[in-house]
Amino acid sequence: MKDSFVTVTGFWHYTGIQPFAIGSVLRCEKEPHNPFDDEAIRVSLYPLGTVGYIANSVYTKANGTKTASGLYDRVPDTFKIKVMFTTKTKVICRIQRKKKKKKDKLRKEEV
Question: How far is residue 81's CA from residue 6's CA, in Å, rounded to a whole number?
Fold first, then answer.
């Protein structure tokens, strides 16, 4: 998934905008048993806990960002996002790609 962006919304119900500093890395987790949205993706920040949700409506997401339902089958159960921009009502984040681990090089045996 090449540079995908999401909108975090609902943060006024939790902590407000304050924890969303530019460059902060947030943890996302799918919530398949959420009573309001079976494709909900919760956003949390240690040690605060839940700080919002990835927007899942054209009315709450910023233009050019993906909805939770648009991502749901393309991301793992947990993943990270990085805060790129903030407004009074939206936080725009980039999905962090997992870094591939380099295979250990085989050591040559000394003679």
Answer: 8
Percentage of the chain beyond pLDDT 90 is 68
Tell me whether residue 103 is in a domain.
no
Structural domain includes residue 55: yes
> Residue 15: what pLDDT?
86
Give the tens place of pLDDT for each residue, 10-48: 898 888 888 899 999 999 999 999 999 999 999 999 989
Show the domain range for 82: 5-95
Domain count, the chain: 1
What's the pTM? 0.83
| 22 in a structural domain | yes
Extract the runs of DSSP E, i.e. beta strands, from 2-111. 5-9, 25-31, 40-45, 49-54, 78-86, 91-95
Q: Are strands 91-95 and 49-54 parallel, antiparallel or unpaired?
A: unpaired
Q: For residues 6 and 83, give the distance between their C-alpha atoms in angstroms, rounded to a whole number.
A: 10
- Number of other residues whose CB lies within 10 A of the CB of residue 31: 18
What does the alpha-carbon distance between residue 41 and residue 95 come to, in Å, rounded to a whole number? 13
